[in-house]
Design brief:
The complex is a heterodimer. In chain A, about 5% of the residues lie in helices and about 45% in strands. By secondary structure, chain A is mainly beta. In chain A, the strands form three sheets. In chain A, strands 1, 2, 3, 4, 5, 10, 13, 16 and 17 form a nine-stranded antiparallel sheet that branches. Chain A has a nine-stranded antiparallel sheet with strand order 6-7-8-9-20-15-14-11-12, covered by helices on one side. A two-stranded antiparallel sheet of chain A has the order 18-19. In chain A, strand 16 and strand 17 form a beta hairpin. The radius of gyration of chain A is 20 Å and the shape is globular. In chain B, strands 1-7-3-4 form a four-stranded antiparallel sheet, with no helix packed on it. In chain B, strands 2-6-5 form a three-stranded antiparallel sheet. The longest helix of chain B is centred in the first third of the chain and has 31 residues. In chain B, a hairpin with a 5-residue loop joins strand 3 and strand 4. Chain B has five helices and seven strands. Classes of the chains: A mainly beta, B alpha+beta. Chains A and B meet through strand 6, strand 7, strand 8 and strand 21 of A and helix 3, helix 4, strand 1, strand 2 and strand 5 of B. Strand 21 of chain A pairs antiparallel with strand 1 of chain B.
Chain lengths: ~290, ~190
């Protein structure tokens, strides 16, 4: 697809295609195909009397099948530019929207998503993910953090200490992401920083996904004894959060500093400044 | 110390695995939210007292029977900034924003303040006028059924040289200027 618009600064530039989706990212003269979309799994409806056939619920993620549903094929976008920040406001559908922004002196892009209320009029529980698809040849390997500290290497459909028979290809490859998930090949590296603990995986080479919201209609019989179907003001819950996308050269190649840059960014976004607001009748001079 | 204990006890409770992962029942989630709100309000008394001492240079005078001095600044936290809501910035023509940097290195951060209009001036503690940019609050957020607010913009400015484990304050005032409203790129 042809590029419709782009936002960025001297460090990172994002291109959006004619359908309004992210299509490519350029950093330091390297352009990689990177797309981003919201999709959903349909929650499994099972028989809770059978251990291996439970419904998807608060404690377990079990999609009905491993095929994901798309939320839209055409995204409405509006672009705002200024000297401090450039923003792309995306509307995927009536219950998913997102702001993609790049500040003028930051080397990462922010994706601030707003998801919900998840519609369940069709009596189908849904588990919403954001997915970044890249052309990086990750060969099944990706990295997840261990509570914000060291990164752990994960290999799809594999465990280091036992022979694994995967019965649930999506859920069986999901890992807890507290602050970061990443993948790389010989040349490029992509990392996504999160603002909260989420589930995440890489179910295809070059692909990273994170679960952002869930609304399910059946209990999973693990103790809570109710479906994960919460409401506020009579509507399903709405979740808002941010992902931070960092793209750079992989450590194997030119720049050994990309992981260090990710660590600095991680500190900035997980420990931001505390903001205190005070009304005042003082003039500026009196306040000084 | 009793104020801090509200937060200590709440943080103890919040380490339950259901609180960490969100697998608690909804009524428990409401209780967690209530406890956090109480803890933030209690600790707000400490941060307010400390920041008033730091920013005015006064020394505390713990004399028995001494009447506490009136608070000079309120140093309110806005828990709903993630959806661009803050009573102070929405309702005040002059207000002070104090930023505390919790990191052990100096920091530069882009600050977003929700405001109802696009004619504010941001001054730093040296009297310099900082560049401000206004970005419309996205439609999806404006349409939230439980978000009642007059704020239409996020005002963005660049706060640099925030000292490690220290603070900087910014004076923000409404002006009579009528700058151009932010306009999107024309459709291509």
């Amino acid at each position: 697809t042809s590029s419709m618009t782009s936002v960025g600064n001297e460090y990172i530039r994002l291109n959006f295609d004619t359908n309004g989706f992210l299509s490519a990212v350029t950093v330091e003269g390297m352009t990689r195909i990177i797309s981003q979309d919201f999709l959903y799994y349909e929650g499994a409806v099972g028989n809770n009397m059978e251990f291996r056939n439970r419904s998807s619920g608060a404690y377990i993620f079990r999609p009905q099948n491993d095929s994901m549903k798309i939320t839209t094929t055409d995204v409405d976008i509006t672009v705002y530019r200024g000297s401090l920040v450039e923003e792309v406001h995306q509307k995927f559908n009536n219950w998913i929207s997102q702001v993609v922004r790049i500040y003028s002196q930051k080397n990462y892009a922010e994706f601030e998503w707003l998801v919900g209320p998840i519609p369940v009029d069709d009596d189908i529980g849904k588990e919403i993910i954001t997915r970044f698809d890249t052309d990086i040849k990750s060969e099944g390997m990706f990295f997840t953090d261990s509570n914000g500290r060291e990164m752990i290497k994960r290999l799809r459909n594999h465990r280091d200490t036992w022979n694994l028979e995967i019965l649930e290809p999506a859920a069986g490859n999901y890992y807890p992401i507290t602050t970061k998930i990443a993948l790389e090949d010989d040349r490029a590296r992509v990392a996504i920083l999160t603002d909260r603990a989420q589930g995440g995986s890489s179910l295809r080479n070059g692909s990273l996904e994170l679960m952002v919201h869930r609304r399910l209609l059946h209990d999973d019989a693990f103790g809570v004894d109710e479906a994960l179907n919460e409401t506020a003001y009579g509507h399903g819950l709405i979740a808002r959060g941010t992902h931070y996308l960092m793209v750079g050269f992989s450590q194997k190649n030119d720049s050994p500093t990309q992981k260090a840059l990710e660590r600095f960014a991680q500190l900035e976004v997980t420990l931001p400044t505390w903001k205190f607001f005070s009304k005042t009748n003082y003039t500026f001079e009196e306040w000084m | 110390l009793p104020h801090l204990s509200f937060m200590r006890e709440t943080m103890g409770i919040m380490q339950h695995h259901d609180a960490v992962t969100g697998t608690e029942k909804q009524k428990v989630a409401y209780d967690y939210a209530k406890r956090l709100e109480v803890a933030f309000r209690a600790c707000g008394a400490n941060t307010r007292a400390a920041l008033n001492i730091l920013t005015t240079g006064d020394k505390p005078k713990p004399v028995e029977g001494h009447k506490p001095r009136p608070v000079k600044f309120e140093f309110k936290t806005c828990a709903l900034l993630n959806i661009s809501l803050c009573d102070v910035s929405e309702q005040s023509e002059h207000f002070v924003l104090t930023l505390y940097n919790p990191l052990s290195s100096s920091l530069a951060e882009y600050i977003r303040v929700p405001v109802p209009d696009n004619n504010y001036q941001v001054l730093n503690d040296k009297g310099a006028i900082l560049e401000a940019q206004y970005v419309p609050i996205p439609r999806g957020l404006m349409d939230l059924v439980y978000r009642h607010s007059k704020t239409k913009y996020d005002m963005v400015f660049f706060a640099d040289e925030l000292p490690p484990l220290g603070y900087r304050s910014y004076y923000i005032k409404k002006t009579k200027e009528r700058p151009l409203k932010p306009v999107p790129d024309s459709p291509n």
